[in-house]
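[agent] plan:
  1. take the single chain provided in the ticket
  2. run structure prediction with default settings
  3. attach structure tokens to the ticket
  4. add a short note for the reviewer (M.T.)
[agent] executing step 1
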Amino acid sequence: MGASGLGSALAKCINLSNLTLNLWSNQIGAMGALGLGSALEKCINLSNLTLNLYQNKIGDEGASGLGSALAKCINLSNLTLNLGGNQIGAMGASGLGSALAKCINLSNLTLNLRNQIGDEGASGLGSALAKCINLSNLTLYLDRNQIGDEGASGLGSALAKCINLSNLTLDLDKNRIGDKGASGLGSALANCINLSKLTLGLFLNQIGDEDASGLGSALANCTNISILKLFLSQIQISDQGASGLGSALANCINLSNLTLELSKNQIGDKAASGLCAAFANCIKLQNLELSLSNNQIGDEGASGLGSALANCTKLSNLILDLCKNQIGAMGASGLGSALSKCTNLSNLTLYLQQKEFICF
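[agent] step 2 finished; step 3 output follows
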């Protein structure tokens, strides 16, 4: 009665175009979500909606029904929908996506579905969203959803059909992606021909060297990407994977901003240096944030890494995290001497806390 009644009252605001509604951690349930949606669909002038229903136990029925109702908001162009922690499974995710696909004017969508949607739900959601022909900015939070290789590849293949997509944030942290999932996802996203900004979170999956290299090679085909953020910590990457990833990213010819999170892997001296040497081929790279904390980098790697970065001739902003490696006084000095040759560097943040103190 509470959520439905609130919606019914708001539906009488005939000129309402912008609405933010925070109802997280209540006890709305499926019926409340359905009632709220039915009321909101009467807001015929609504163009911008932020709806937070986090932890309300709305389930599959509530998610699908809410989506169907919102699809009738024919002027909706910007939608932020937080449905995390709501016991939504594959059926609910697919139903929600199918409904939102009918929002023909939707151009900006942020969707939090931290539930248990699995492979089927991820693929179904992607296939449905591919029909949002005007979608240009998409943020999907799908972490902790038991998504495996099949779901990751299927999701990517579907999103590749979003022909106008230019900005994509895809959080797939803490799922079950391994083997060919990362490569399949990357290969699919490479077909997003208008993609210029990509943020991809794959933290704590089971990707490893081969798929890390494959992911990089695939993303290198996204020729229009200028801003790339990759979160690949704790995915079992060693020297081979880091080198392959770097070599692949070197082919991103339009890359100007790169954030690369590779902490808590198994990357050593040679790979760290090689990774940064590859960045020198990114001739437009100006802003770099690189985290290699908790790896196996020593003095040689730190010095080599710095020397390699000195070849990034346009680099102006650098954040470098080398905490908790095996870098001593010699490595720290070598790193500093090398970075002093970055002639265009104007802003530097350097994290060097080690497992043991650096003694000069």
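[agent] step 4 note for reviewer: The mean pLDDT is 92.
[agent] ticket updated
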